[in-house]
Amino acid sequence: MICLSIILSGCTNDSSEKDKNALSVTGNEKNEKNEKNENTANIGMNEITAITEIAENTGITEKTELTEKDENPDKTEKKAGYLSIAAEGLSSDGGSFLTCGTNGRLDRIFADGTIENIPLDTGADLTQVLIGAEITLVSGYSGTLLYSANGVDFSPCKGVENADILGITLFSGKYYACTSAGSILESTDGVSWRRNKKLGSEAIISISSSGEYIMAITTETDIHISTDGNNWDSQNFNDIYNGYYDKFVFEKIENVDQVLILLGYLFDNPDIPLVMYSESGGELWMFYSLAEINDLELQDFTPMRVNSICAFADELMGACNKGRILALATCETCNLLMTAKNPDFRSIAVTEDKMAAVGDDYSFVVLGVEDLIPDRITAEKALVDFEVGAVIIDLRNEDEYMQSHIKGCLHIPFDELESKLSELVPDTNTELILYCSTGADAQKALEIAHQLGYRTVFNLGTIDIWFYETE
What we know:
Elements: E1 5-8, E2 11-12, E3 82-91, E4 94-101, E5 106-110, E6 115-117, E7 126-131, E8 136-140, E9 145-148, E10 155-156, E11 165-171, E12 174-179, E13 183-187, E14 194-198, E15 204-209, E16 214-218, E17 222-226, E18 232-236, H1 237-240, E19 248-256, E20 259-266, E21 273-278, E22 284-287, E23 292-293, E24 296-297, E25 306-312, E26 315-320, E27 324-328, E28 336-339, E29 345-350, E30 355-359, E31 363-367, H2 369-372, H3 379-387, E32 391-394, H4 398-403, E33 410-411, H5 417-424, E34 432-436, H6 440-451, E35 457-462
Parallel strand pairs: 1-22, 32-33, 32-34, 34-35
Antiparallel strand pairs: 1-2, 3-4, 4-5, 5-6, 7-8, 8-9, 9-10, 11-12, 12-13, 13-14, 15-16, 16-17, 17-18, 19-20, 20-21, 21-22, 23-24, 25-26, 26-27, 27-28, 29-30, 30-31
């Protein structure tokens, strides 16, 4: 049986030291709804409305928040709109995405923001898109599970149970699906399906996998884990940590670069998001701290819900409610929130150079790195600029610098930047490219450089993304 452990903000908590309020970074205070300060940063977002489309729809229902009396949060109704998106990769038309949603809607979204509707012979709400090496799958309510070999012509899969198919994933060469009846289905080819195992009576709302594990969850915080796809271990997160941590509600589990990330919120305060991850197949969980966002307290942005996660431009990006994109940082006070559109975003996906988020009212946005993080620069672009006169500055301490640094860079420790930059780089027209250990100091140094009058300053992030010459 797998034993769950927790690390918060990088510190292991022994059972004797676990603090019931250890998640107070999310705030145990009840949300004060009056005069909320929505100071979201519209960084690079002024031009994206041109590639955002909102489709008109009717019959939209209001979302019902979980209360203490509501023991079935998975029954929450969602507005009409897109529920899932997956990247198809590059094509003659650039990068493209496949997105599905309510009322049987399936669309292809291209990098330039154009849409191609794919007609389906179903009106069921569609829950997830999965793009495999040979086939594409789309799951949905009432036993809807469709497959296509070309991404255009979809047919019903065989042997599927009549329950709602709430999630699909690929693990060890097989396809797996989870259902509202508490079952796991499996298929070797994605076309013919059979029951793998019934794990319980609660709906299994999401399923995902890394290279070594497959994991499925329920709203009630059951975590089902398998290393072979056949034998499953099950534990309830809230039960294990009852009395140590706040009670949670789980909503989704996703794989980001072979790391399983679990999303949800606090049971007693749905306005507070939960983002935790495991690199060990669920044996050890760590939390992303949202102590501050845009240099303000989390409470200034509630209600906050992180509905989907992806990695883009060396950043962890979250699709959030109120049309917001959250850049999560390892530094608990360095998180950034950007507003793209008003409707709630439900899902997010990336190609090589584009990121797309979709959500309620069939809204979507397609963004590039320059839209999301205008101060960031890729290693490729940094090298080009460096070769024509830009100055790369290493902000780390002496020991880190001596271990390895970008060849030809200028070393100015972060604490000395304000006093030494003007002396070492007197021309404020010089392009500056900054990097540090985590990217956090580089972002702060960027602000300092701007205050000193430097016009063109970029944050490279860390030396880890530099694949060129070092010394």
